[in-house]
Amino acid sequence: xxxxxxxxxxxxxxxxxxxxxxxxxxxxxxxxxxxxxxxxxxxxxxxxxxxxxxxxxxxxxxxxxxxxxxxxxxxxxxxxxxxxxxxxxxxxxxxxxxxxxxxxxxxxxxxxxxxxxxxxxxxxxxxxxxxxxxxxxxxxxxxxxxxxxxxxxxxxxxxxxxxxxxxxxxxxxxxxxxxxxxxxxxxxxxxxxxxxxxxxxxxxxxxxxxxxxxxxxxxxxxxxxxxxxxxxxxxxxxxxxxxxxxxxxxxxxxxxxxxxxxxxxxxxxxxxxxxxxxxxxxxxxxxxxxxxxxxxxxxxxxxxxxxxxxxxxxxxxxxxxxxxxxxxxx
Length: 330
Description:
43% of the residues lie in helices and 15% in strands. By secondary structure, it is an alpha/beta fold. It folds into 3 domains: 13-115 and 290-304, Rossmann fold; 119-200, Rossmann fold, CATH 3.40.50.10800; 204-281, NadA-like (Rossmann fold, 3-Layer(aba) Sandwich), CATH 3.40.50.10800. The strands form 3 sheets. A 4-stranded parallel beta sheet has the order 2-1-3-4, sandwiched between helices. Helix 13 (265-274) links the parallel strand 11 (258-262) and strand 12. Helix 2 runs parallel beside helix 14. The protein is globular and about 60 Å long.
């Protein structure tokens, strides 16, 4: 089964545990089991779905999630779900995006503090100032941004489709924000001039070329896959660069015997469950925001229908247009 597919949660708890037993100690399972059972019941009662990003922990990703994936996959699936309630197991900008695309549905997030260093690095006012400085230059905004920033943009992109979006505009120059490293990595692959903002992901910015060199020295033959939010010097020494979905596809198609995913901690655990025959080396940088989402918080959110994510209608209409322009290309 692809990690982009619906996760079959309508199964006994014992079967769910078999999926994660290599990553959830047996002594911890009884603690999780009560929350999982309650969440599955509440989803049925509320006609709710859980959308989980690839960085969620295995006990969430592989037991209560209905749809899993990267930002692009979750944005796509958010449009087509028939559920009345969407709980976004991820960070706030993802929940906002789900709300933009589903204005008539209730969108919940388990912890309102689950933010993002990239989204917090820029404001709508910053974008307006950039437009004044570079009149007529279109703004391409990474989905790792607030609805306020999306509303000031021409089109959104993800790490998976950034180059395609940039080149689709047919212009010689674009402003790309807020991730400086993603912009620099795209700039190396396109003739379009890119003006970048100096936002960084607090997970990916910490990886260095020395980390990769140490990996290769300690684990001969390791295949290194890096996320494009990493610094260009890291991307330059990786064997493959791609979004989390791109990494999953690479592992599934190429089956490297020993592989390192240069991204957030839980990614390797979730992919390894689908590929137990492979050896996953884990250089680990933790996202504190992703880890704010827990099974007890998901349960509480569905029990109390909190915390609901809303976007003011005039702002939402403009932000939605930028997201929909991206989705129309993919």
